[in-house]
Design a protein that fits this description.
The protein is built from twelve helices and 20 strands. It is an alpha/beta fold. Strand 5, helix 4 and strand 6 (125-127) form a beta-alpha-beta unit. The protein has three domains: 5-127, Rossmann fold, CATH 3.40.50; 144-379, tm_1862 like domain (pyruvate-formate lyase- activating enzyme), CATH 3.80.30; 385-441, Beta Barrel (OB fold (Dihydrolipoamide Acetyltransferase, E2P)), CATH 2.40.50.140.
């Protein structure tokens, strides 16, 4: 077994994928080779997710699977969000883990490996510095996750918002913005690699630059990216925070064709009382005004949001307000989560009093409503021509996405033709389902 080989498993969100690829870059530039088969790798790294209960369970399951299959001489390292917050618990529950590395110092992966080799007598090596230095000590690594012709580009890490249900500040620390010149240079590097779509990601992209003393930092960054990398076809912004989608940001999005008319703004609820218990912005008048501004400036905008049902104290009246709001606004894309109790968050004293069957019923009602809305919106696209970024093809069929669909989370377009992967082609929409479209290539 080559001592300088590794197998890396990435769990969770796109932000985690960026950290995983960054660790992989560090190892590769130091002579380590990635292996597709974990049995052939000297080092197995699992970059875990610890955001909510189901994600934590998946991380534990994968770690146990890797530990059970671990061969003599292999090293198993648990990294990421789960280990940052529950390092000791992870080591106790999963026997066979050699190293624990948190998400705040992913860039120390090589140091952890070398220390494990130098001190094989250690049962488990813990590397969990508290300092939230992500964004300031990145070893010159490209902070992106490339998937074909698309890439996620991380612009900040951590969060300073007080959301009562969320453990991200406990895991990641406060928000740290990456320098604008570095981000712009990375966008140019991605362009040179053939990337055609960049999705800007952070826990809260609209908070970009606050810690750098910037006002409207995201708008300024978007303008800088447009000017520096005009060859990038699509620039997408994910995870906007309510109250911080500014007039300038809307103007910048509307003014530059490169910036896709797509806004992902997780609102989490629509009843002010629920939002106050969540410690979220509760000014619904602002929400209505802002959504109206966005749709006026960009009539073709695709609006995406997420909601939590079954939050502690959510009454039938509060849920009905959320249901009515979704019916009225008619979001293009919508994700719903059932409340997951997270110890250590400020919502912990509220407990988890809403019965599981009530959460499920509310989830089903909301998603059934959204399916009908999504179907109607997709049916309205039949006959229109949309540009599609092709991500797969074979047997006379190609699959891709329009500007209305973010990678991995939204729908796809099935094209009745073989089109090279990475191409952006005009497609006439001929069919519509609740989430996906079909169409023919426009020659």
């Amino acid at each position: 077994m080559n001592p300088k080989t590794f197998h890396l498993i990435s769990l969770g969100c796109a932000k985690n994928s960026v950290d995983s690829e960054s660790m992989g870059q560090i190892l590769f530039t130091n002579g380590y080779l990635p292996m597709e088969n974990p049995a052939r790798a000297k080092i197995i790294i699992v970059n875990t997710c610890g955001f909510i209960g189901p994600a934590k369970q998946e991380s534990f399951d994968v770690l146990r699977e890797m530990a059970a299959k671990k061969r003599k001489g292999q090293l198993l390292i648990a990294a990421g969000c789960l280990t940052q917050r529950y390092g000791a618990e992870v080591a106790q529950q999963v026997k066979g883990i050699d190293g624990i590395l948190g998400t705040r110092r992913w860039m120390d992966i090589l140091d952890v490996i070398e220390e494990l080799r130098d001190t094989p007598h250690l049962h488990t090596l813990y590397h969990l510095p508290e300092a939230a230095t992500v964004g300031t000590d990145e070893r010159g690594i490209l902070r992106a996750s490339i998937q074909g012709a698309s890439a996620y580009l991380k612009i900040a890490d951590g969060c300073r918002r007080p959301c009562a249900f969320c453990a991200i500040p406990l895991i990641k620390g406060t928000a740290v913005s990456r320098p604008m010149d570095v981000i712009v240079a990375e966008a140019q590097a991605l362009r040179d690699l053939g990337v055609r779509e960049i999705s800007l990601i952070a826990q809260d992209t609209t908070d970009y630059g606050h810690d750098l003393g910037m006002k409207d930092g995201l708008a300024a960054l978007l303008e800088a990216l447009v000017a520096a990398a005009p060859e990038i076809d699509w620039i997408r912004t994910l995870y906007a925070y309510p109250g911080y989608v500014t007039d300038r940001m809307i103007e910048v999005m509307a003014a530059h064709p490169q910036i896709v008319h797509y806004l992902d703004m997780p609102l989490q609820h629509a009843h002010p009382d629920t939002l106050r218990r969540m410690k979220r912005p509760a000014n619904m008048e602002w929400v209505y005004r802002t959504l109206e501004k966005v749709r006026t400036a960009m009539p073709d905008v695709a609006l995406r949001t997420t909601f939590i049902v079954g939050y502690p104290g959510e009454t039938d009246e509060e849920f009905q307000a959320l249901y009515d709001f979704v019916a009225e606004i008619r979001f293009d894309r919508l994700g719903t989560f059932q409340f997951s109790f997270e110890p250590g968050t400020t919502s912990e004293p509220l407990g988890d009093p809403v019965p599981p069957e009530v959460k499920q019923e509310r989830y089903d009602r909301l998603m059934t409503l959204q399916q009908s809305v999504s179907l109607e919106k997709n049916q309205a696209l039949v006959g229109q021509m949309l540009d599609v970024l092709v991500e797969g093809q074979g047997d006379g069929i190609s699959v891709g996405r329009t500007y209305r669909d973010a990678p991995e989370i939204d729908g796809v377009v099935v094209i009745e033709a073989d089109v090279p992967v990475g191409e952006i082609v005009p497609v006439r929409i001929t069919g519509a389902l609740a989430y996906d479209l079909s169409g023919t290539l426009v020659e």
